[in-house]
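User: Can you model how magnesium ion sits in this protein?
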Amino acid sequence: MGVSGGGKSFAAKGEIINQVLSSNADIIIIDPEREYSQLVRAMGGEVIHISATSENHINAMDMTKEYGDGANPVILKSEFIMSLCEQLIGGTNLGAKQKSIIDRCTASVYRTYQQNDYKGEVPTLQDFREELLKKNEPEAKEIALAIELFTNGSLNTFAKHTNVDTDNRLIFYDILDLGKQLMPIGMLVVLDSILNRITQNVDDLLQSHTARTMLANSEFIVMLNQASTDRLKLAELLNISDLQMSYITNVEAGHGLIKVGSSLVPFANKFPKNTKLYKLMTTKPGESV
Ligand SMILES: Nc1ncnc2c1ncn2[C@@H]1O[C@H](COP(=O)(O)OP(=O)(O)OP(=O)(O)O)[C@@H](O)[C@H]1O
Ligand SMILES: [Mg+2]
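Assistant: Here's the modeled complex, given as structure tokens:
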């Protein structure tokens, strides 16, 4: 957290570099501003550009054996397909009949893949739509029609087989060009594809708790130069003393306070400018590579 120019992007890039070089952690970046692409390329990461017209695709129906948290992955996936359909249909709640149909069709399209021990061809949303069309209920036909634009129409980017390396430990989702129509489902698909790799606490994230809860639950917070009103709110929320406040008041970029567990530690990070890394991390036009 910090004011514009306080060094948030720079600190995030520094953290990414440290993790890449000194740990085995996976790093996943969702970037609506295409700020991290140079750095990710330089570090050998996978850049995934998603938009209606991009060559990169993530199959919304991708599902590994590990998907979810030990329960039958298809049950969880069926819930995901329901939220996806809800979004595609226009953000309205699905009725009980529609839900049952979606659940039945989801189970059918995964049957062979699941019997095959999650190997071979993963179904796509196009297969899912074809399955809907086989059903006699008018509700099934309605859902099939509603999702057509996203399965067989011009916004079908999530209905094709994945052609990017989602196993790379450094993944960068470039969502700048998603556009208004695809953004909500794009975010759902990206979060779901992350859920294929991690199992902890993603539920919380998907249920979008308030920022306040997120902050109160964060073990690690970097605070850079703060605007005065934000500073007061933070002080109250995180018990920051007047003296400690001076480290986030009118300070240079890259200086601030770190909260680790219950401790607050001041820091000054003056990154050397005559380095290749600096050129990859800076956001100042003219300084970058
Ligand atoms: N630790 C640091 N050492 C040296 N220079 C830094 C450091 N942190 C930031 N800077 C410089 O300050 C500039 C602004 O920082 P940065 O782009 O990270 O700000 P920001 O908080 O992300 O701003 P915005 O909210 O506008 O995105 C950087 O481009 C870099 O030149
Ligand atoms: Mg920034």
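A couple of observations from the model: The chain is about 45% helix and 10% strand. The beta strands are 27-31, 46-49, 170-174, 220-223, 255-260, 263-268.
User: Helpful, thanks.
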